[in-house]
């Protein structure tokens, strides 16, 4: 009775794809977190305004004309005109009624709030603009929260250094994980590589399927990692659990174009690294003597 030949099962690509997806998920998690903190930092800095107060005799039309001129400047994010009535209403919402009874006898000045873009929100630049606004006709006083801005800038710089260090560590770890995953895959096929070489296959012919496999696995891992990131940052906030509400505020500051750029960078990094590792590992076994395969 003839024995049936034992067919070897083709190794599954799923473990390799899931490993790559896990690495891309970690990189995506880090990239999204960096974007979120940067966007929130920019949002806080852009809320630091220069407050311009005008003399009582100045007319609203003059203030609105100055407002339009200021809005044309490249460093200005937005402006806000506060009339006397609006100022009284805002003070009424902020202070108790007894204090407001006293304030009713006082005439509040017209004021203008100027909000800078994030890259200009530093104490040196704001000091220069404060001096410039003070020289404008009709301006009584110009103020900005110097201590708050200085403290916020220092805290954001510290956070950026910490996150940059964490990013570097994660990139190194991701590189090692992708490298090991691809090398293990090539190692499992070392006999196939040497057999193809012994029957006369060229190096380019041998390299091509392994490189294409690495690229396919990386492309297949991308949507898995993307779905996990989306569920974490954009799915959990709408689950109804109050502890996840903070994620909604966090992601609301992330611009789609920035998120798209980070996603493309992670995709290129994963595909390029797995391809280069596949090339290097396959070449290693092409150069290796057959007795050293065992």
Q: Note poorly predicted spans.
A: none
The major beta sheet can be summarized as: 4 strands, antiparallel
- Percentage of residues in DSSP E strands: 5-15%
How many H/I helices?
A: 10
**Mean pLDDT metric:** 79
Task: From the alpha carbons, calculate the radius of gyration and give it in angstroms.
Answer: 31 Å
Question: Major sheet: order of its strands?
Answer: 2-3-1-4
Q: What order do the helices and strands follow? A: HEHEHHEHEHHHHH
Secondary-structure-based class equals alpha+beta
Shape: elongated
Number of domains: 2
Give the termini separation: 34 Å
Helical fraction equals 55-70%
Which helices and strands, and how do they pair?
Elements: H1 14-46, E1 50-54, H2 60-71, E2 76-82, H3 84-94, H4 97-103, E3 111-116, H5 123-134, E4 139-144, H6 146-188, H7 190-198, H8 203-235, H9 245-251, H10 256-287
Antiparallel strand pairs: 1-3, 1-4, 2-3
